[in-house]
Amino acid sequence: MSRKTKKQTGSPLNDYDLGPLLISGIEPPLEGDTESDGALGARHVEHNLEVLLLAFPGIVVDTEIYLIWNNPNAPVDYLIIQQENVGNRFFSLMVDKEQILPEWAEVYCLIRRPSGNQSKTKPLKLRVKRSRPGYPDPNPDAEGNQGLVFFLPPDLEAGSHVDMARADRGVVLEIQPWENMAPWDRCLIAWGITIVEYVVKAIEVGRSFEMLISPEIIKENPHYVNMPVAMQIKDVGGNYPADPNSKSNWSEIQRVEVNLGLLRPRPPFLKQAGEIVELDELGGAAQIVQIFIDNDYFERDDKISFEWEGRDIQNVPFFHSEQRDVNLTNFIEDFDVPNEMVRAIAGGTAIMYYNLYKSRDNEWLPSRKVRIRVNGEVIEWPAPSIVEAPGGELDPNSAATVKYLAQDGWTSATKIRIVWAAHSVNFSEEFFLGPIPDNKQLSFTVPSTEVRRFNTLPVEVYYERIDLLPHRQSQRLQLQVGAPTATLPAVRVESASGNYLDPANIGTHVLITLPLTDSLENDVIKLDWDGDAVSTSVQITLAKDQQGKALDISIARSFVVDNLGQSVRIKYSLSRNNVPRRFSPISVFLIRASLDHITNFRNSNINGWSYGPALSDIRDRTFRVYGSYTVFHNYTYPRSDKSGVLFSQQFKNLIPGQRYEFSMKVRRFDGRYSFPSLSLSTSQGTLTAATRISDMVNFQTLIGTVTANSAALTLYINSHNSSSDGNDYEIGEIRFRLI
After folding, report:
1. Which of 110, 192, 212, 241 could pair with 221 as two cysteines, CB 3.0-4.6 Å apart?
2. Same domain, 566 and 623
3. Has residue 134 been placed in a domain?
């Protein structure tokens, strides 16, 4: 057994020397938002979040990369450079979706090279929003979201129309507040074919405000019979009130007559009645759009240029146009919009119009425009397949032929990226498609030299379109390259109490247990004890009698004592010939004299507590910062049961017969509807009665004492109100200490 003691010298790296990490689809910051680099919304937390670090100077074997998500003492992911990934173009790290909690995330990587040189990426400061604005809809059975309310001016409400004189005054709408209203929400008004946007200021939250439809905007739709006007909200994270096809995604439509005296040809119209295309009804057919060739505007030898300007839910354009000669008048001309162009904008909208070329006058005359919606499920791009791995398992010595289909809207100029992503190894290749075959079958071959780098690893294979923003990814093929190996389990530290380690509870050494089950003779195990002040590592080559068994490693007491008041991170790795090195998760322990376990939620850190069933809805988990302190903020969302255990944590190595104090500081938030009712308990019984939380300014303290009857005790924080109507609160501190 060898030991190497490392004293960490110098101050922490406070400045960055590398560019920021990359996260796909971040919502960019709005103009004027100087506090953030963007935002994450609900769509980012449907799965674990992939974070990319581009290759950087000085990458050598054994370089350590740590991903920090708010808490600098507890990396959420890490990897150590090995021979098989030293040449990566980028490094993929993952954030568990359960850790992506409102309201803020500071994200960066710390890099430690074997030489001792360190680097840090530029931190990304991201807003996090998991709730939806205007949700829930008070009456989802009605047409339009009944929680999104705006009022037309009284004259238009009474039936007056907008003429030129009225247009010159503009139209002022009164916008009512909506559920989950917040600063930086964008109120979108669809005025005919034009979207008008207003960004909510902090002072306007919870209040009504006015939006002006300017004369210039009104004149963009100079003649619009029964023009629809509707309202929608998009928050800073890119969240909408509901799914794109839901009636609750927009407000109820109101109608306004606009006639500025500038007559234009009638707009195109759908063959079916109304302003909505239902993809389920359309099936595989083209959408027929009709234009009335009337005698008032059309003459023989004129030309029609029909335009379909479709945009999907990410505002990506899918345009179609067709030009025809006018040979007859006073009849209806049909134009076909290809099915793939309609399906490509499922959940989105299209603006339809045409330009009429008057041969007599040698000029183009625009028609009126109309905006229509396309309802239907957004079609996920199917995962690719691999010819050599029909069952999802690939020989590591084989090449891999990736097969995939050209999707709706792709052309020869479409740029595609093929990606293979494992935790520590990745491969990608970008290219323009070129000619697309009639059967739309496309393929790309990954050479065996690249495949071999993924031996033993589970891999996600996908393709993405990268010539339009935002990039869009396919579903992912789950692939196993070679024989799989199990993930290494986290260490056990028997002398720890929760996530605290007290020097008084250990003798000359602290015992670290590595719960190995599939180790083999000659495997090399390396344990890293990474302290803020003092660090060490231990490396062991397993003997035959140690294979397949848990392994105990002792760390000298000095490495605990010398980190007193700080933290240590413990991890280990397993190296075996001809397979990638395997790593355990990082376990973080705070070194404290005596037991005084304080949770103040700084850096969104819950300090070893586990969420209970009453916080099963992840939207209920939020952290708010008020100046110099942070609180856990629960604005209870419907519709799950909010009663039961909120938080729990087990503490070991307690002293039987000794008294301990368990306390919590909490206050009410919002003040509407029902009051929160909370209590404290332990595995030995109730500590405090259910207490109504009524003070909205000062924190109430719930406090109880317990005499430990064994060395282990589990603590619980409980809710006694099942309702999501009201029942909103903030926890400022949780404390458990020896008295």
Report:
1. 192
2. no
3. no
